[in-house]
């Protein structure tokens, strides 16, 4: 079964239940399979708070042949005791054994800082778990359950019950705690106008979510996922902005996680979004002075007030009364109050409405008013709000927050009617007080009407422009929201602790040794090694690069709704800024694989800082840099001033190679969706020819073409990921045929371009017209994906063709002439040293190993002065720059990514020859 069928048929497990059948191969001798060392798992950077009772999800790899789908797994906490766990298979090895498993726990803090997962038989594992006769073990009475009726689903976590309508506008009907409705009518809302400047209420059209389908993706027992799909419905009943929202529940938990992705499908010339958010109603039962509003700022700061404040009055209600309101507890009975305050409560204004706006990464403002028609009063302001708030009273309410709140500005939190029986909260992921969302292309084309003009302009600004290709139609964005349904106003410290966990959820990870020994991702890395001066120097620069880009994100303010997660391409050393406004030198959009560099860096180090940088990049590129519908569906966009601006729409950007790390390490559902989309991305080759602007006189079989560099690496990554996720043999068949076609061609990888049959997913060899080489062929994941293909599928001619390409790319002119009959320019020599290293390792060639290190050091811009010389790192301040910043003038993102990958892979493959 594929993963989706497995989940639907109840294959999820808790603690020690077998994984179930998923293509298991009995031909493999499990007893002799290589066992991956049992190592503990850790929390990367954020420890789960023991007082907050949050769930967690992660992925874990297994060596080939180690884990059968019939095996059971046990979660062991730091004290050595079994803990409840839900598990599902995420990917399979070619022999049918499990390659990746997904895991969920509902009480992450109970595991401790270190914990482990062990394999065993179902019976023995059950015995270890209960220490009693398994047949007498009673199931937990608080396990999660889902009841389905004709019009709704009802999820019961044991702590809360949530109804989810199957049609209509509300994604959540109501939420109860202990039999009492706390919140209801959760709905996505927004507004759009036809003018790009200001917010014109007379010209504004409101819209709200409209549900088309509700699906149970996981049903427990510890984690449930409900997938809600639909579109937004305008006041004139027209539909736009399709969305997917996942509602995630954990057993024993009173929180609901809502992960919403919308896709832009409007007319950017006429439709300007002026607000986009999630709105819900909180039922109020407490007296006004026992109701509370909280906003979390930065550094655990908290703004906390009541709609009916009783502190700071001319008359004192009593110390116990004041203290109770400040702490969020029920105040003493009115009879115990100072009578002069009790009898004068009606003279104290009721503050109904509150707003927190964060329109940039560097400032938020809190305002409040008594009611509509009266002035807003400035309450306070700060730097970066956490995006977490509370609305309710001492008998219950909702604590809610958004991940990456200030990073994804402009954002806003509105509370309306806090003094009414029903209060309304809106978490805006596009603030209605911001300028309208303007997605139009940033220039008028500058007269670039022909391909010749566009190529000429490319030589000036590095921007590949073409009319109509700078369209945002099809780009997406995901927002992660948490609703915590409380039975009382949380303490001040609990509110700020929850804000920390929402802003940066705890992430479990294996030890670096475990990932390496599992043999996943081609094994093209080793653990950090500082045993010699030269190795230590390389390790220092690898660390330095991550630290530098991590710092640049904040110093250069690489934030914003459409921008956060991406990094810039190249510096302008004269202006001392990254070239944010210069054509193709601005946003990087995965150019030359910074994603791969960061993920391999994480795998070898286990660094939380590196993981968060890579994770933010994936969460951006998977949504914003890829088209999810429309004319360019399946393609990504090359680097540009705007993420969708470049006319180079290519598979090299949308490739699964950059996102599969995140999916397997985190079991993130949205990333899984994007990997599924990529499975058929090759069909876009008939929509947009990536080399349409270049002279092309070669006749190709079929109607379409595919390059065996950037196109093939993307298609291979997409099919490989689909094959290992589902076990469907058709994907292996597609891969095998393509690998044979390349391997059997006289030029192999030097053939350059093949014809392509999109319907049959077949490469069609073209007549041999001599070798063709592009310096970009191998720098968009081809090296890394080929390592996996050769590991998994035995096609000798394909392996031979790839090793020949690896050997010859950086070879001498004499060697190239002798083998290929001509000499070509080996641009990006240092990055391609890892191809030489791979050939050296496969052929066990000392000569190639030594040559790889010579190539690695050949280009000064890539060597980057790492060899014991001082690095030029400038600390800049005014008046040279607007804000104090660090500048490394010799380092571009291309250099960082490709040098990093070459360094990591050379150390792994031929590290013994460095000295």
TrEMBL record:
Protein name: Tat pathway signal sequence domain protein
PcRGLX/YetA-like N-terminal RIFT barrel domain sequence ranges: 40-117
Source superkingdom: Bacteria
Pfam families: PcRGLX_1st, PcRGLX_2nd, PcRGLX_3rd
Source organism (scientific name): Halioxenophilus aromaticivorans
Domain PcRGLX/YetA-like central beta-sandwich: 145-499
Residues of the PcRGLX/YetA-like C-terminal alpha/alpha toroid domain: 505-914
